[in-house]
Write a structure and sequence with these properties.
It is built from 3 helices and 6 strands, in the order ααββαββββ. The protein has helices spanning 13-27, 31-35, 56-67; strands spanning 38-45, 52-54, 71-81, 87-96, 102-115, 118-126. It has a 6-stranded mixed beta sheet, with helices on one face.
Length: 132
């Protein structure tokens, strides 16, 4: 597993802007703008059922389906590079049901591979709380 220090924002500004654009579009439910940030063959995690989906159409359909069941909001807190060439974004995510009740309120890491100015792959990593 890669190591990362999220205290320092050492991510290239163009990558940070690309990812921020994708987060803003997702939160605005603007799937078409979000897809402009992704490679046409993007590998994207299916956070609801597990596994991965591939490509723009699959991401589009997944998000539309997701938004009919839940109301997620993701806010990037910090950006950092890991030692494997990925960008790790610490994200505060709040997921509500369609009546506004909070289902989940947590901080996670989104790990991106950005190639040629587009998101090629994303994965979700839950933060591990140390046992004292």
């Amino acid at each position: 597993m890669s190591t990362v220090t999220l205290a320092i924002d050492d991510v290239d500004s163009s990558c940070r802007e690309l990812l921020q654009k994708a987060y803003d579009a997702f939160n605005a439910r603007d799937v078409d703008t979000a897809l402009t940030c992704m490679d046409s063959d993007v590998d994207w995690p299916n956070g609801m059922e597990g596994g991965y989906i591939y490509g723009h159409k699959a991401v589009h359909d997944y998000w539309i389906r997701q938004w009919h069941m839940i109301d997620p909001h993701v806010e990037p807190l910090r950006f950092a590079n890991d030692d494997e060439g990925n960008i790790v974004v610490e994200v505060h995510q709040v997921v509500c049901d369609l009546q506004g009740n909070i289902i989940a309120d947590e901080t996670v890491h989104h790990v991106y591979l950005v190639m040629q100015g587009l998101i090629k792959r994303m994965e979700i990593r839950k933060l591990v709380t140390p046992v004292i």
